[in-house]
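User: I've been trying to design a sequence by hand for this structure and keep getting stuck. Would you show me what you'd pick, starting by listing the structure so we're on the same page?

Assistant: Good idea, let's start from the same input. This is the structure you sent:
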């Protein structure tokens, strides 16, 4: 029953799309002269120019959004790798043994020559 309903709705959608396209073509069948910046196309049907304009606009929008999406994906991947690296470093630091006494690490005098003092 579910397959029949899915098949029927797909057929209705297909038939509706065909009817909509045919109505669009019949309603916009008049010829026009298309004057672009460097190109002139005489006697092209209006529906054809509208379809081309919508197609070019959709392509440009898809490219812009696609490049932005790709940039964000690459940035997220870089952040995930940095987070994994920092988490592994934190895990290594947590597994280090604790010092026997807190003052033993500071018992040595600092080397003043390393700081540029003579």
């Amino acid at each position: 029953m579910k397959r029949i309903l899915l098949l029927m709705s797909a057929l209705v959608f297909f038939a509706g799309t065909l009817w909509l396209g045919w109505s669009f073509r019949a309603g916009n069948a008049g010829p026009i002269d298309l004057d672009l910046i460097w190109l002139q196309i005489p006697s092209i049907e209006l529906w054809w120019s509208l379809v081309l304009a919508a197609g070019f606009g959709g392509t440009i929008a898809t490219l812009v959004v696609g490049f932005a999406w790709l940039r964000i994906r690459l940035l997220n991947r870089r952040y995930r790798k940095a987070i994994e690296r920092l988490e592994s470093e934190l895990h290594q630091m947590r597994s280090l043994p604790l010092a026997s006494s807190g003052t033993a690490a500071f018992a040595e005098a600092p080397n003043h020559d390393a700081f540029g003092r003579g």
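That's my pick for every position. To get oriented when you compare it with your attempt: The chain has two helices and two strands. Strands lie at 31-35, 40-45.
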